[in-house]
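Fold this complex.
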Amino acid sequence: MKSSRTVTIVATLLLIASLAGSAVTSNKVESLRGKEATLEEVLFLPSGNALKRLSLGYSGLLADIYWTRAVQYYGAQSNQRSARYDLLAPLLDITTDLDPKLLVAYEAGSVLLAQKPGGAGQPDKAVALVEKGIRENPDYWRLYFTLGFIHYLDRKDYKAASEAFEKGSKVPGALPWMKVMAARMAERGNEIPVALELWNTIYQTNPTLRDTAVKHIVSLQAAADIKELTRRIAVYQQKSGSPPDTWADLIRSGLIPGIPRDPTGSPYKLMPGAAVWVEDPGKFPFLSEETIREGK
Amino acid sequence: MTSRLSAITLNTFREAVRDRVLYNLILFVLLLVASSPLFGAISIGIQRLVLINLSLTSISLFGVVIAIFIGIGLVFKEIEKKTLYTILSRPVRRWEFILGKYFGLVLTLTVNAALMTVGVYVALLITEQKLTTADARLMVAVYFIILQFLMVTAITLLFSSFSTPIFSAVFAFALFAIGKFAGDLRTVAAMAHGATKWLTTAAAYAVPNFASLDVIPQVAYNQPISGSLIVYNTLYALLYSAAMIAGAVLIFERRNLK
Amino acid sequence: MYAIEIQGLSKSYAVGFWKKQSQPALRGLNLTVEPGETFGFLGPNGAGKTTTLKLLMGITFPTSGSARILGKDLRDPQIKKRVGFLPEQPYFYDYLSAPELLTYYAQLSGVATPGRSQHIQALLDRVGLGDVGSKQLRKFSKGMLQRVGIAQAIVHDPEVIFLDEPMSGLDPLGRYEVRELIQGLKDAGKTIFFSTHILSDAEALCDRVAVIHKGELRGVGVVNDLRSASAEKAEVVWKGTAALSTLAGHLTESHVTGDTVRATVSTETLDLVLEKLRQQQARLVSVTPLHGTLEDYFLAKTSESGAAEA
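Structure:
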């Protein structure tokens, strides 16, 4: 003999019906709350530090949950991509407050923040996030790498990119290529003295990169030379009323001490129209009009 | 039947009161009083925010803790102490017993929460010198907290009907914590594939959805809460609790008591 | 209609780590109790007395067999209104006072509200707890708790009352008072079924007794028959119920369990009965002269040789 049969039947039916009913109602509730209700919670969270204290030592776990949330709502694989990009920066901020050492949140999170399309298109916020990451993790050179690329690709600020790569290159363990990126970025941003210095350091410290370094160095020096020569030609033109025909004209007027030679030793060519160029452009693969024109 | 049910309900309530459970109200008041210097140091707008967040969260947490600590013993204690023998020898159905215990604990929690809410309103009155319609929204948050109690008590009762107190407490607390992140569980389920999707979806529904019952932030920021949300949340809490209790009844009906 | 009718009631517990082995606590119990009878259920500790009572109360479920109380199957909750139960070493809600406890139980048993509180106060007086007032049960002595136990067993004026070791833990005065209470109930015509291992109480109060040992019924009989000073009666046990009809007139008392018949016979007719049994080719199991005290009977039935009769 077991229990009353009626009770068993009623209770079983009730159990099944209630479970089914609760699932259905739950769906309805979720739809009423909106697709991004879970995301919007971030607006109501206290500051990251308060939350950290409240989480009673489980802040790491909480950070992981929030990071997962970010991936789910904003990640490329997400099939319910959220357009609420206004919530991404606060979410990442809270995540990194809870766990300042959660590197992936800085690295991948900043990419999500900076990119457009496929991201929030907020590179300035991305920069702020990565800089926070660097403050909390100064020994992790890859954050500088991330920072550099944000400046380079999303903000097109080559000077800042170069500085980021350069700082990162100084962190122990950084790949030498960081310095190369720094130099290239400087060059891209037409910061000729900075670029030269960087290339020189590379030349001196890294045997494998010597060839590349040399090519860059000579190109940059040539650019600087040509720029200066062009300037002095303009001075001559102003004084004499007509462009010089040969270098001798310039030497005679005292504007240059002798025949200008490029870093490879060959003399610079004075072209018709008073333009200056190198004898053998092949030796100067990185020499461009832009560098000459914009070089600082 | 109803007289037996109400007798068991009231007796369960009486037991909780005589067990000095309501003393937690003193702790609550102390908490509010101790944190009031905090209010004085910050601007008016934030003052209200902090008061509401702090007090509502306390009402919720205190209640859940009580629900679990008393709930784990609801059935277990009666079996261990054999007080059930003289109950079952009477025309009490086993399911009446379970239901009566449930209602008794829910009544205790509701009274507790109601008294605390009065305290909150008193505190609001003191700090703001008047009550506004915005303050009425607090009741919705408290109502949702009580819905949450309905579910937590039912879950704990289910565990109490077959498990020892320690396990019941662990499971109940775990489910409560996971329930707070039910939204994330759902998004994981939505993004999964194959067998994992099936499993995580089942888990997402099995786990109590406490995230949707948490309107404390909205109330603190004075945002309206839709009537249909109230209706559907009520339905959800009732259905989920009914399922848990049905489970408890099924288990208890069959139990050979030693 | 019997007050209590038990048929083949058995209970086995699954033991062992994998719950594969079965440990029988009660094996095929058959018993009947007439209305108004005071029936003693005797046995050493662990014999299965409490198990039987738990089965009858629906606290545990039998492995097989059935029982009826006042003609109704014991699963019927309505029958509980007419049944009272005092468990062994009872524990009550210690945060309640005696009147509160009795009121609670009365509510659960369906006692009507009008006049209820007076009735409860009268009951408390009757069990000697008239002046406990609002003292919480956690402060009661063992004797006082036992009295509360009896009070709750009869607060709804049941017809059948089950008592499990009602004298346990009481001092001589307490035991005397409980005996008086049971006598009072008996005089009021109630059916009382009580289990005990104290034979003197059984002797004093019971009309009939059953002896149970290791889960099996070992003996049943009218108390006076079982303890006659001179050997006026004998107990005959045999296998083969077919012979029963021919012998009906010669037996003072008989009881059947499965294939085994246990009968009380006066010594005058003993030879006649034995002869008839031989003619019927019934298999004789034992013949026990009934003289001496109930204790002698009890010891005989609970010894190893007594097991052969089961």
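The first helix of chain C runs from residue 49 to 57.
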